[in-house]
Write a structure and sequence with these properties.
The structure holds two protein chains of two kinds. By secondary structure, chain A is an all-alpha fold. Helix content of chain A is 78%, strand content 0%. Classes of the chains: A mainly alpha, B mainly alpha.
Chain lengths: 313, 294
């Protein structure tokens, strides 16, 4: 098990290497002159030259990649073109709201989607099942920011129950924090919920058809005991796998959700960086999120042994 | 038991018949609904100039931010442009990007996937590259690219395609790897058929059906990605009235002019829904075993 863990950890190195190589090489392979694009339409030749120097575009590719990677290994994510501040500090300042939003979303999503998927499979073919599947298709089809605006218009503007926008740290009290988190988490979680409810239902349907489920029912266990103790336990591996893969949806959605709800997190930082063409920030955020994604999926792989003792490495 | 049933089901899942399609559509009215809805959207996009629209870019400061009325069906935006016309013309942009990305990434993914499935040393390298690309969340990958290039329709298509290709390569590769072991391919090889001919005559036809389904889902997700990119200012240039752009311009106005979000949002969601329903129907038709599950 430990040896397997180490092997898998080492296997993430080439993957992250490709990610690093890609975001770095974009500066060189993207059509046109990136320095001119970053400098904008009204830039002078000196501006462009200055940005070229800042990005290190004048140095040879391999030398530049070496220095960049070396700095990266030491936690140096580069310097923002617009503010001149270290990117690692800018990200550090913004990490709390993003972490709060993604954790809230993850909790709400799993707490809603898994039971809903279980019930849909249990009541397969009934109107409950059909409406769950209907909502799931809808969840896949409505973009996250449209859901966000619909929620704001209904719950904040019409009913006045929740604040329209903004973020409160948990230090400012439990309710201010929660009330600002509900709508963004639900909006961000919708597509993720659709995905998890679907896979939970599909896996549960398969497990419920197994002989041991019939045995459990025959020996007089209650429905909930059979569903949770026998079926869900055996369906957990594919569900957890999709929860891990779905993190990518969450990360993509964070950028948009933070924009709609004016949450000062990493997503907002990214959108501001797009407007200012501040590539070092975008580069760092892409690396960071991809790294998180790879590590989460590594953790998911590791969790298989706990979820299903039959799996041994 | 399970091993036997997958062996029997596998060839069936990759060999569609048109009759299979027709029967499944009869059994899946939602797929028909999706198809009809998509046709309506396509017709709207093509007939845009004749649908009582005005120039979607025509400015008119005197009539800005008018709410929906008999004269301006979907209202006007902050520059006085007619939102109805912008939404109708917007269908062209979304559909074009969706179809272009779907075709490009399936064709590219098919070529790369067949290559990796048959040439071992390319497989080792290319799949590592694909693993890396796949671990970058799609929107971030597109943002990185868009931040460095001039905003244009072509660049948006290219950026979204790049994030979709790895998944297609994976799919095709796994299909090729399992098809390679099938008796009919072995028979072809034994009969002296060359690799290229085997690929084209025996492998390729069996990848078409799953790819068609995958392509449909890519079509849907590409339209959503384009809207997200345009919404945060990393998508199609502002002078193109895409649904994402119309909504992006309403970002600061949604509290006073919610209709600027509602109408384009509704059309976008309906179109994506139509394509998703169509995709679900096709998947059901092509893989009855999977259909009962999902």
């Amino acid at each position: 098990m430990f040896a397997y863990f180490i092997r898998r950890l080492l296997a993430t190195i080439p993957v992250m290497g490709v990610v690093a190589l890609f975001v770095f090489s974009l500066l060189y392979i993207s059509p046109g002159d990136p320095a001119a694009v970053i400098a904008g339409d009204i830039a002078t030749a000196e501006d462009i030259a200055r940005i070229r120097a800042k990005l290190g575009l004048d140095e040879p590719y391999l030398v530049r990649f070496g220095t960049w990677l070396w700095a990266l290994a030491h936690g140096d994510l580069g310097v923002s073109i617009f503010t001149g501040l270290p990117v690692s500090r800018l990200i550090g300042q913004r990490i709390e709201p993003t972490l709060a939003l993604t954790l809230c979303t993850l909790i709400i999503t799993v707490a809603v989607a898994v039971p809903v998927g279980v019930v849909a499979a249990w009541k397969a073919g009934t109107w409950i099942d059909r409406s769950v599947m209907g909502f799931s298709v809808l969840g896949f089809s409505i973009p996250v920011f449209v859901i966000a605006y619909l929620l704001i218009m209904l719950f904040s503007m019409q009913l006045g129950w929740l604040p329209v926008q903004g973020y409160r740290s948990i230090n400012e009290g439990w309710w201010p924090f929660t009330s600002h988190m509900i709508l963004p988490s639900v909006a961000l979680g919708t597509v993720y919920m659709a995905l998890i409810a679907r896979i939970t239902r599909a896996t549960m349907l398969e497990v419920l058809a197994q002989d041991y489920v019939r045995t459990a029912q025959a020996k007089g266990l209650s429905s909930s005991q059979v569903l949770i103790g026998h079926a869900l336990k055996n369906a957990s591996v594919p569900i957890v796998t999709v929860i891990g893969i779905g993190i990518a949806l969450l990360i993509s959605g964070v950028v948009v959700t933070e924009t709609v709800f004016a949450i000062p997190g990493i997503g907002r930082l990214t959108v501001d960086a797009i407007l200012r063409r501040d590539y070092p920030i975008i580069q760092a955020v892409t690396l960071l999120f991809s790294g998180v994604y790879v590590l989460i999926n590594l953790a998911v792989d590791m969790s298989y042994t706990f979820l299903d003792p039959r799996i041994r490495y | 038991m399970s091993a036997v049933s997958t062996e029997i089901a596998a060839p069936r899942s990759v060999s569609p018949t048109w009759r299979g399609f027709r029967d499944a559509f009869r059994r899946h009215p939602t797929a028909i609904l999706g198809g009809v809805l998509l046709l309506v959207m396509v017709a709207m996009a093509m007939l845009a100039p004749w649908l009582w629209t005005v120039d979607p870019q025509a400015l008119s400061p005197v009539r800005r931010l008018k709410p929906p009325s008999g004269e301006y069906w979907f209202g006007t935006d902050m520059l006085g442009r007619d939102v109805y016309s912008r939404v109708v013309y917007g269908a062209r942009v979304s559909l074009t990007i969706g179809i272009a990305v779907a075709i490009l990434s399936t064709v590219l993914g098919l070529a790369l996937g067949m290559l990796t499935g048959f040439v071992r040393w390319i497989d080792a390298i290319l799949m590592r590259v694909m693993d890396g690309l796949m671990s970058i969340p799609a929107v971030l990958l597109a943002i990185s690219l868009m931040a460095l290039t001039q905003a244009s329709l072509e660049n948006v298509i290219f950026a979204i395609t790049l994030s979709e290709v790895p998944r297609v390569v994976r799919l095709v590769r796994s299909l090729v790897l399992s098809l390679r072991e099938q008796p009919f391919v072995e028979a072809a090889t034994a009969a002296g058929t060359g690799i290229l001919r085997t690929l084209v005559r025996h492998i390729l036809p069996n990848t078409i059906a799953p790819l068609l389904v995958q392509g449909t889902y890519i079509f849907a997700s590409a339209m959503i990605t384009e809207a997200i990119l345009s919404f945060i200012g990393a998508g199609t240039p502002p002078n193109i009235p895409s649904w994402g752009n119309v909504m992006a311009e309403a970002r600061s106005l949604f509290q006073i002019a919610g209709y600027l979000i509602l109408f384009p949002g509704l059309f976008l969601s309906l179109t994506v829904l139509a394509v998703n329903l169509l995709g679900d129907g096709m998947r059901d038709a092509l893989d009855p075993r999977l259909a009962r599950r999902m």
